[in-house]
Amino acid sequence: xxxxxxxxxxxxxxxxxxxxxxxxxxxxxxxxxxxxxxxxxxxxxxxxxxxxxxxxxxxxxxxxxxxxxxxxxxxxxxxxxxxxxxxxxxxxxxxxxxxxxxxxxxxxxxxxxxxxxxxxxxxxxxxxxxxxxxxxxxxxxxxxxxxxxxxxxxxxxxxxxxxxxxxxxxxxxxxxxxxxxxxxxxxxxxxxxxxxxxxxxxxxxxxxxxxxxxxxxxxxxxxxxxxxxxxxxxxxxxxxxxxxxxxxxxxxxxxxxxxxxxxxxxxxxxxxxxxxxxxxxxxxxxxxxxxxxxxxxxxxxxxxxxxxxxxxxxxxxxxxxxxxxxxxxxxxxxxxxxxxxxxxxxxxxxxxxxxxxxxxxxxxxxxxxxxxxxxxxxxxxxxxxxxxxxxxxxxxxxxxxxxxxxxxxxxxxxxxxxxxxxxxxxxxxxxxxxxxxxxxxxxxxxxxxxxxxxxxxxxxxxxxxxxxxxxxxxxxxxxxxxxxxxxxxxxxxxxxxxxxxxxxxxxxxxxxxxxxxxxxxxxxxxxxxxxxxxxxxxxxxxxxxxxxxxxxxxxxxxxxxxxxxxxxxxxxxxxxxxxxxxxxxxxxxxxxxxxxxxxxxxxxxxxxxxxxxxxxxxxxxxxxxxxxxxxxxxxxxxxxxxxxxxxxxxxxxxxxxxxxxxxxxxxxxxxxxxxxxxxxxxxxxxxxxxxxxxxxxxxxxxxxxxxxxxxxxxxxx
Length: 717
Hints:
Strand content: 5-15%
Largest sheet: 7 strands, parallel
Oligomer: single chain
Helix content: 55-70%
Number of helices: 18
């Protein structure tokens, strides 16, 4: 019995997925990168994918590429600082490379690179587990159907007992696996009739498969069984054959007409709203600019008037200075004359000379007194036996002569001073009187000069302000002209008098249309059968929740555990159909047990994952799935194989499940040898083998022939 919790299993899957991404990034496997040019929008066209509205674009790719019309990819815009954009290839013309694609987000620029990379699917799976992994439940948490037995009518619909029992199991078990070799009616009988039974009881079912082709095959069987087309929606990118046969069932076509119509109406309203708002903005801008220009003109006029007043004040001040200077000029001349007369008396020099002579006189007197004192104090011995007395007497005599000369000169200078003093005093009095007369005029002139300096500064500011006002007026006039030109270009299709009321009406209409458009995004609630790939399921449930009653997975063994585990988040009965002895899941890693445990192991090993968790080694070694909680039913009657081939396959492939062949024509195996030619591409061997085999099959028109080659691809005639 499974013993691990859903949280533990999810943790193991996350580790496995992270490791898978590391391996893919290190090896750079499965990545194709093509330069895209002339990227352009399809005039606002859109497509409904994964229940979201994607914008469609056209571009040019290199010709001759092997790109499927439903390829998922990413676009790397060459515009700087733009993240990669998820896209879907809608159409690709191998002859000329013309391509149409849908993008989840707006595409900037006209060039970029389209990268078809298997890794983004792994990354999205990891993103799903990180965002929604906590919603995964344990296997016992899957809801058990309320129905005990299926509708009795299943036994009257041409079903075999095995097929009827398989339908009963699907409708009554919470988890089931319907195993059957090719041609046993898994899809067109069991799945289709079980779905029809559910739809008849107003149940909503989710039909999933690993590939787009498998999804289309399952939905085709359901539609052929009689489920109304309006009850079925194919989410994602269908194959061209399914799209051409059931266009109204495809997600894009089912709602595209309404979406296009509503989108066009919304776009028209947006343009009208934008145009009217633009007109309003331009009119307001023109009015504001005109008002501001008028204000600037008033400012310039006022500043010009102020400048005129300032210039007049400057002129008046300069005139006043000139008048003052004229009045002051005679007094200044008299003052200059008196000062010249006083300077010619040289009284300051005379006084200086007298002061110097007086100092010299006093110094000489002190020296004479000092020498005489020395003579008095001189001793007898010095007087008699030395010449000291003689030298002192001579010095005293010389100083006395110098003193008399100094005193005579001093007396002469004093007499001169006494003679000049009255004249100098009179001149000084006259000069003081003249200074007193001139001072008021000088003060007035200084005040006037300071006033002129202030007025000149004010003049500079006013001239600058006037220049700026004129410049602002020219700029505003240019803006007014541009606004009026733009208004003329827009035209007056709608009056602006009641613009606010009109805008409110348009916005209300736009809101109603957007509400209707959003209904299409959630219109899945009106559908009884939702068909998509497992990758599409993860992409859809990352955006929104799903409310369904039952899940069907066709070709389930071709899906890895990692992609089926998210279905447990629905907590609804799950029916898996397929043949785990055919092709295993595609895994680009051959040697890493951590990766292969959840990415190479078929989904029918789901119970084993809840038992082994991170025991990578043991999970990888399992060859047969265990079914303790899941109900397994086997379909052993093939309507595709003849008895001989069925017996051969039963012995060597299916190991005795009792496979029987009920085909109308016997089948047999014929071996042919096709020598492959070396080609540079990785798939050249497969292609060079298929082409001659296809020719061989078509050259023999008898019966229905199939071919199995070493690369496990089947060709039909």
